[in-house]
Automatic annotation (TrEMBL):
<dbReference type="InterPro" id="IPR006860">
    <property type="entry name" value="FecR"/>
</dbReference>
<dbReference type="Pfam" id="PF16344">
    <property type="entry name" value="FecR_C"/>
</dbReference>
<dbReference type="InterPro" id="IPR032508">
    <property type="entry name" value="FecR_C"/>
</dbReference>
<feature type="transmembrane region" description="Helical">
    <location>
        <begin position="85"/>
        <end position="102"/>
    </location>
</feature>
<dbReference type="InterPro" id="IPR012373">
    <property type="entry name" value="Ferrdict_sens_TM"/>
</dbReference>
<keyword id="KW-0812">Transmembrane</keyword>
<protein>
    <submittedName>
        <fullName>FecR domain-containing protein</fullName>
    </submittedName>
</protein>
<feature type="domain" description="FecR protein">
    <location>
        <begin position="176"/>
        <end position="270"/>
    </location>
</feature>
<feature type="domain" description="Protein FecR C-terminal">
    <location>
        <begin position="318"/>
        <end position="386"/>
    </location>
</feature>
<keyword id="KW-0472">Membrane</keyword>
<dbReference type="Pfam" id="PF04773">
    <property type="entry name" value="FecR"/>
</dbReference>
<keyword id="KW-1133">Transmembrane helix</keyword>
């Protein structure tokens, strides 16, 4: 079983249960670690060395193990035999893994396994990717046994991490949330971030005391920042930086958005263009109830008072559409319901809708729009086609 897990690990993300077994095998013996590193090197070298290993025989390898055991003198201690057995066993695993690796990768012409687009994934600082479920609990452990964080149900918590931050040596993780799902993260300083569907957050696993706390967001998130006057918290979202000391606010900044929106619920924040030096004179101050819209193309900022509940209700599972054109609404529906929508009815493109949905299915949502402006649609699994 471990060989199959190793091969899956080399191909891409593995499940949490498999990750636990893999880490256990990796830590049992130094030879296991070296074997895996060799496999990774072979993979990185595009398997040039694997062309000559197709003749390897796992039975022959096992015979080597048995021979190694039989040549032990009877007066040697049991611990010596066991130690030698483990060394041979590691070689055996390596040989079998290499053989299967060759068949799996080289013979199949290196067909790369695509990541599940519906899975929540955590990309570690070393490039490894873990798949996170929305149920159950588990520890996220590094190769050397340190606890990076814990995953409990629909949340990852770094506040009890064993990792110590070192100046100028921050290690970043990246959390990817697919369409149709939401997730919560507690950062090492106690700051909580609720991530909406189709969002990505990059953050240090441990903040450095006395230094700025910086994270990067693509998509939408609600931040409840732990107050620390000595360490400003900065959210970089495309071309905008949001600087806070401790507050609650919502940021919407998907790649297709022409305007990045920041809605302040509590406290105060200052906004300024990314890549520029921060100063109070060159930043925009928000007070509770303010929404700032940043148009990056023209570098224009506008501020208005809003009902903050409309912009944070997504955390309660609601979908709020206010005076939105159908062509702009499609992306929000895709993210919220985890579907793909193709619109073949161009007459609907600029039709404006206003509605709020809660527990409705995507079919019920579409029927609501149909009652206002008739059109046909076709649903096949998670694919939706809007017809005339």
């Amino acid at each position: 079983m471990i060989v199959e897990i190793i091969l899956k690990k080399l191909k891409g993300p593995i499940s949490e249960e498999e990750e636990i077994l893999f880490e256990k095998w990796l830590s049992e013996d130094d030879e296991n670690f070296l074997t895996f590193q060799r496999l990774k090197k072979l993979q990185d070298n595009k398997l040039k060395e694997l062309q000559n290993i197709h003749h390897l025989d796992s039975q022959e390898a096992w015979g080597t193990i048995q021979h190694g055991l039989h040549t032990n003198k009877s007066n040697k201690r049991l611990t010596t035999s066991y130690s030698r057995f483990m060394r041979y066993a590691a070689v055996f695993v390596g040989v079998v893994a290499l053989s299967l690796f060759y068949k799996s990768f080289y013979m199949e012409k290196l067909v790369e396994v695509e990541h599940d687009p519906t899975a929540i994934t955590l990309e570690l600082g070393n490039g490894e990717t873990r798949i996170l479920s929305q149920s159950g609990s588990t520890a996220i452990v590094t190769r050397d046994g340190n606890v990076l964080g814990t995953k409990a149900e629909n949340m990852v918590d770094y506040s009890q991490s064993d990792i110590d931050a070192v100046d100028n040596d921050l290690v970043y993780n990246t959390l990817h949330i697919p369409n149709g799902k939401t997730f919560k993260i507690v950062l090492s300083d106690g700051t909580t971030v609720n991530l909406n569907a189709g969002s990505t957050l990059t953050y240090p696993i441990k903040f450095v005391p006395g230094q700025q706390r910086k994270v990067t967001l693509i998509g939408e998130a609600f931040f409840h920042v732990k107050k620390n006057e000595n360490s400003p918290f900065i959210v970089t979202s495309q071309s905008l930086d949001i600087r806070v000391l401790g507050t609650q606010f919502n940021v919407t900044s998907y790649p297709e958005d022409t305007n990045q929106k920041t809605v302040l619920v509590e406290g105060s924040v200052r906004l300024y263009e990314s890549g520029t030096s921060y100063s109070e004179d060159d930043s925009t101050l928000l007070t509770p109830g303010d929404m700032a819209s940043w148009e990056s193309a023209h570098k224009e900022m506008s501020v208005q008072k809003v009902d903050t509940e409309l912009y944070t209700s997504w955390m309660k599972g609601k979908l709020v559409l206010r005076g939105m054109k159908f062509k702009d609404m499609i992306k929000k529906l895709e993210r919220h319901y985890g579907v793909s929508i193709q619109n073949k009815n161009m007459d609907l493109e600029d039709r404006v809708f206003t509605a709020t949905f809660d527990v409705e299915t995507i079919e019920e949502v579409l029927n609501t729009f149909v009652s206002e402006t008739y059109f046909d649609y076709l649903i096949e699994d998670d694919q939706i086609t809007i017809l005339k």
